[in-house]
Amino acid sequence: MASIYLDNAATSHPRPRPVVEAVSGYLNELGASPGRSGHRPSLESGRLVLETRELAADFFGASSVENVIFTANVTGALNIALKGYLRPGDHVLTTRFEHNAVLRPLHRLKEERNIEIDYFPVDSGGSIEREDFEQLLREDTSLVVINHASNVTGAVLDILPLSEWCGEYNLPLMVDAAQSAGSLDFPWDKLDAQFLCFTGHKGLMGPPGTGGMIIDPEMVERTKSFIEGGTGSKSDKLTQPQVLPDKYEAGTMNTAGIAGLNAAFKYLADEGLEQIIEKKKRLTEKLCRGMEDIPGIEVLGPGPGERRTSTVSITWSDGDTAELSVKLDREYDIMTRSGLHCAPLAHRELGTYPRGALRFSTGHFNSGDDIDRTLAAIKEILG
Ligand SMILES: Cc1ncc(COP(=O)(O)O)c(C=O)c1O
């Protein structure tokens, strides 16, 4: 029997065929570094990167292509944005549902730049109360950072009203869209985020090693470059060019990955994002309902019918979910993820720290049969 991969919130698998072919096509046939040399393969690689920026700009509703910055993943984008933007003593508002990709840079900045951090509450369905947010605002608040969808519970956070409140207070908003890009039908063009950070290898179904950020032009002056190095532009200067995207993109790019990301954006458009999301939604609902019928299992986060991504995490009253995860893998060939999911504060908030929970995350290539087999396997293990 075929194995069942239910760890798509970590990274999507398998990748769509055109994505795999684009990566190997680039490596086999093009190979050259973009934006460095004048020969044809280099120029063609440059065009491929530019076209991918255009696809990303279209997908996220960015106003200009130069503002799409490519990074190795969303962690890279968040590090550039947080460390480049925040100044000593700044006050930051965020939530306890952030991934370590946000928590750890913030923690380091707290130690090294004395930034101060406050966390506003988010309910299990992802709602944020304006009053809670406003209560924590200070004169020196300079940034709001939030993930769009929890990688632990699958709850979709209410970032549209938050972006409006931030606008009213003239506060920049940084969004970690790791779990939502490609996984939610969301009106990106209505979101007023000054830093929109995404990863290419989860819901977008691109290759690992891809991601980026869309930076508001008004943030560029204050947000310092993160690494300095070759850009193929202004090579006579010893300082990093300040033009975009070069300011934040030093060194040879992951062009093979970007070729795959290019194919992934086209795949989403060709297949229809709505249909892709609808299918994952059906599978997730089936999984949630099935879990709720199993005695001893509790599904974390949004209740039935409430908005969630295709992530479903459970606890097991009679035992250790890590053990359950190992059994599912070794005895049933079903891949899941147990533990803290790099989100320790979320687990503290949910009362599941330090043991964590067991996460199932469906993807575009899962079937209803995969869900039936998974539920049957859990029932069998639990006796
Ligand atoms: C909410 C969230 N933020 C950040 C990340 C980090 O993603 P990446 O490893 O692609 O940088 C993840 C991935 O696990 C995530 O779920």
Automatic annotation (TrEMBL):
Determine the domain of life of the protein's source. Answer: Bacteria
**Stored InterPro entries:** Aminotrans_V_dom, Cys_dSase-rel_unknwn_funct, PyrdxlP-dep_Trfase, PyrdxlP-dep_Trfase_major, PyrdxlP-dep_Trfase_small
Stretches assigned to the Aminotransferase class V domain: 4-373
Q: Cross-referenced Pfam families, in alphabetical order? A: Aminotran_5
Q: Which GO terms describe its molecular function?
A: catalytic activity
Membrane-traversing stretches: none
* The protein's name: Cysteine desulfurase family protein
Organism whose genome encodes this protein: Halarsenatibacter silvermanii
The top of its lineage is:
Bacteria, Bacillati, Bacillota, Clostridia, Halanaerobiales
